[in-house]
Design a protein that fits this description.
12 helices, MetI-like fold
């Protein structure tokens, strides 16, 4: 038997693990009420202004609505498909049953980026526009797994004699499911639905590849953390100096080009001026008074 100190050490170790898991969550919860926008500890005060500011943002409301829609639809599909798959795997004996069971679990085991890229490639090749439908399809692929695992585990712990007794007493298949099977698996179905909705609501990686230009709430939060809360204002303030520097640089380059053209044209004008004067003198020579052949010979010798 385990000693007293062994039990105490195990309990202490379990308490430390729970604190390691849940203390960061509690701190994040407290930061939501922080009066300062700087994440520092201790918190200077508590306020509710951040909730009001967030709710008044239309982008947040649209993202929240999209997340709720995708989560509810994906959870509903996962409940139906996952439960049917669990019943088929549990009650039927057929070739390849274990392989199919592995394929149902595989989407949750694969990295999210693999699933997201695969779905995005499928939608691109099929010419399917990314929308709420593609988000639901992407979320349903891994939400089915949690429902399937919960329902299958509960069915394996269910006594088959109860179903046989109900059928011996004259109950049909629907009555057996309604009066015996469904009450036995109800808690597993509810747990699977809660896990599926939670997974769908906070999914980021798969949603990134299937949402297109839409933003769910996790994507909006991720973008706000990475780029800032007021993205359009920040972009405008950040880009305006760049445009101003670009305009100034372009204006300076134009002035340099004009100055270079002026420098190039100046020597050409200086060279053209003597030629025009000489040409004018040559044209005007016959008009002036002539001194006879001597002047012409002297001029030719010169």
């Amino acid at each position: 038997m385990e000693g007293f100190w062994t039990r105490m050490v195990l309990r202490l170790w379990a308490a430390l693990i729970l604190l390691f898991l849940f203390v960061p969550i509690v701190l994040i919860f407290l930061y939501a009420f922080n009066t300062s926008n700087i994440q520092s500890w201790p918190i200077p005060g508590l306020t509710l202004k951040w909730f009001t500011s967030t709710w008044n943002d239309p982008d947040v409301r649209r993202a929240l609505t999209l997340s709720l829609q995708a989560g509810l639809v994906a959870t509903t599909l996962a409940l139906v498909l996952g439960s049917l798959a669990a019943f088929a795997i549990y009650r039927m004996t057929w070739f390849g049953k274990e392989v199919v069971s592995l394929l149902f679990i595989l989407p949750l085991a694969l990295p999210g980026i693999v699933t997201g890229i695969a779905l995005n490639a499928f939608f691109s090749f099929g010419g399917i526009t990314l929308s709420l439908l593609t988000i639901v399809v992407g979320h349903t692929t891994f939400c089915i797994v949690v429902v399937y695992n919960n329902v299958l585990a509960r069915l394996r712990r269910t006594q088959g004699s109860l179903l046989e007794a109900a059928m011996d007493l004259g109950a049909n298949g629907f009555q057996v499911f309604r009066d015996i099977t469904l009450p036995l698996i109800s808690t597993s179905v509810v747990a699977g639905a809660m896990l599926a909705f939670a997974l769908s609501f906070d999914e980021v990686i798969v949603t990134t590849f299937t949402a297109g230009a839409q933003n769910t709430l996790p994507l909006w939060i991720f973008g706000a953390i990475r780029l800032g809360q007021r993205l359009p204002d920040q972009i405008q303030l950040a880009v305006a100096p760049t445009y101003r520097r670009s305009d100034e640089r372009q204006e300076g380059e134009e002035q340099e080009q004009r100055a270079d053209i002026d420098r190039r044209q100046a020597p050409d004008q200086d060279r053209q001026r003597p030629q025009s004067q000489t040409h004018g003198d040559q044209v005007g020579l016959p008009v002036g008074p002539s001194n006879g052949g001597e002047d012409e010979r002297d001029q030719g010798s010169d």
